[in-house]
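Lecture 7 notes: from sequence to structure.

We start with a single chain of 103 residues. Read the sequence below before looking at the structure.
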Amino acid sequence: MRVSLLGVAVSGVLPSLVALGEASCALHLLHAPLDNWLRAVDTYLEPGWRSRGPGFLTGYALRCVAVSLGVFRYVEEPARRRLAARERPAPAAGLDVGMAGGH
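Now the structure, written as tokens:
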């Protein structure tokens, strides 16, 4: 049972890492707009105060990951399923796609 602790640790961490990997495209696309939005909200709530401390950065990172996971689950995955479910177009009528020469 020496491996059981390692197995439990890996089985708990691995799905989380896979989910983060799948959502990485959304994270890459959304981090800058989210930063701009959070700066605007921060400036509105506390005019003249520039927050770039650990609390702001932690909140920013957590929000980015949460929004990216949501976009992956509710936008990317359904779009992938719809695209995969599309049927490929049938060959044009009268087009011989069999043996060369139509034999």
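Residues 20-86 form one domain. Keep this in mind for problem set 3.
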